[in-house]
Description:
The protein is α/β, with parallel strands linked by helices.
Amino acid sequence: MPHLxxxxxxxxxxxxxxxxxxxxxxxxxxxxxPAQWAELARPGTPLDWVVLDVTAGPGSRPDxxxxxxxxxxxxxxxxxxxxxxxxxxxxxxxxxxxDAHRHLDWYRVDGFLLDRCPTERTALPEVRRAITTLRAxxxxxxxxxxxxxxxxxxxxxxxxQLVTFAGSWSDYRWSQVxxxxxxxxxxxxxxxxxxxxxxxxxEALRIARWQGAATIYFTDRTxxxxxxxxxxxxxxxxxxxxxxxxTGVSE
Length: 251
């Protein structure tokens, strides 16, 4: 069972009425996976947001297939986030800003996922600078920091959401939540878990709720030892997870 380091008021638990929704890390290109992108626009799907990653960012020119997919999602009321790669703090600021402008100008994104975000306190000023600039060019932008693990708590002061777990089910089922997260509501945290067997979906959802993460993505796809992207294909139990998450609140 996952270990909770804190049980203060910010943590979620049974009977708390926490709304859980799906955050989609980014499927394969809409030309390759048109049915999957169309499925995301289906009315009633419990989505928080969907990440649009054209080619490790917005690409070099507007992509008609991505334009259509993003437009369909916006028409369905789904928030679309542009993918920005921070490369753990090594990304040139000007390049990052250029990618952000392309996402906004071409695809009218509602915010950004800052992938491969650093976690150290020393990198916080540069990440804060990036977030401040993104909000200056899009004052309603929803900003998600894709750490993949718990960062220094200072990051939570500047972003709308933090991805505090991204990894395998074998690691997730024994994971621990950082004590400082209890000071924030569950809608500030996201968990992405791959290699989750169908028979463990309920358990995975309970862990997310116990650990205080309201935005989740579970898939039975694997990373094959780090050789493939487990997030680019819709899980085989998509209808099951939509039904399970669509119940809306903790048991």
